[in-house]
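Class prep. Protein, please:
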Amino acid sequence: MSTTAQARLLAPLSTRAEHPALRFEGRVWSFGELAVRADAWTRALRDAGVRRGDRVAALGGASPTIIAAMLGAYRLGAVWVPINPRYASPEISHVVSDCAASLVLVDPALAAKLRDGKGGAITTPAVATLPLQPRPAPSSPSPTPPLAEDDDTALLIYTSGTTGPSKGVALSYRAVVDGISALTALWQWTPDDTLSLQLPLFHVHGLCIGVHGALLHGLTTTLASKFEPARVVADVDEGATIFMGVPTMYARLLAHLDTCPQDGAVLQRARLFTAGSAALAASDLHAFERHTGHRIIERYGMSESLITLSNPYDGERRAGSVGRPLPGVTIRVVDETGAPVPDGDSGELHVQTPGMMTGYFGQANATEAAFDGPWLRTGDLVVRSADGYVRVLGRLSVDIIKTGGFKVATREIEDALITHPAVREIAVFGVPDPVWGERIVAAVALHPSLGSASTLEGDALVAALVEHCKDVIADYKRPRGALVVDALPRNAMGKVLKVALRERVEAGYAPADSR
């Protein structure tokens, strides 16, 4: 009899019982201890009325308790629904209501967020709260986990909500196990590795790759409740071999290495650094390599498909590229009509993958719209090279600007403008214009050294940016408006919220005369 996906996830709780599973705030949890805690959670959830297929929502930060609770839910065949603890009350209320949660597990420190968005408590009868410290009961028999079908839903991961109310992405046990196994096998994870995990546990990056990848390989995870560059160095100094981060983390890590260059030699002892969830600047990739000797592996994925592309562990890790399809993944690049485009031309990325979502929970129409037959429409504009490496140019929705009859990728403009010495962060987007269709606008965060006395504002800033890029990009790609911000708005995974920037400009935007 073949081993089920559920059994593969739970296997190290018994087969690796003596091996360290989690290190957290100075304490070590073995897989055996994690199993005892998971059993206690299974009892607590079962006593609260949770049954197979019910949704258990969890509002809490990264901790062993959250992981044990998730495993307890899995042992019941329940569906785990992690909620971003940085969400505001209306956003939390939306997730709880949308998934029809049978139970909400909430860290007491976050209990005040359980509001309906109008100041009142969430009162849906199917929602309750439990403390996050159930006590194990060794004298009572451990519940036998149900043999969940591989296509049963294990997780509902709610999207970032950058294009509207967040949707629950349903991921089956099969999708999680097959998708994450393909990725971690490519990255050559082994039980001898130790993962430094400082990502949140409500998203694919930290939860699926990090926690589930560690379970599938039975390796040790050093868990942190928040990211600190010095903690990464300390983890590697204590034996961590893998670190995964988003570009904003690497920017902070590089700033730390600039101040403490001797820590680069410590990080050199690790064997693997990876980046995802947003594009990593080539300059940061090269700077990290100079400091540590490591070239970061960039990869690409979505909540809806898990990870589908990656640069290789062995082979060229190409700057500016998210690599090639993982084993078992098929991709195509198509134009607006759905016709394949030649390598070297831009088009939308479509994927087929073992890690595919079942669909958006309770949203059949949205699920249907997300697919073209068996192909998931990613909404990302990409270019594939002749040797199969893929470069992401941006989102079709906000990162493609149609101006003056031309279609322009914002990534190309951003790459040109970020090299201006006064620019710390840049985001380019389009706003409606009666002449151009869309006018190119750049939101700019200036280097702090310029202070509030900077004269680079308004027309002066636009002129400076245009002058800087005039020899790099065509004239129709140059910005015609600028917005100075203290910092670019980002979601929890570091992606820039261009829709929010566009709305801010539109609210007070008066088109200048065309030139």
Summary: Residues 510-515 have pLDDT under 50 and may be disordered. The first helix runs from residue 5 to 10. The chain is about 30% helix and 25% strand. The first strand starts at residue 20 and ends at 24.
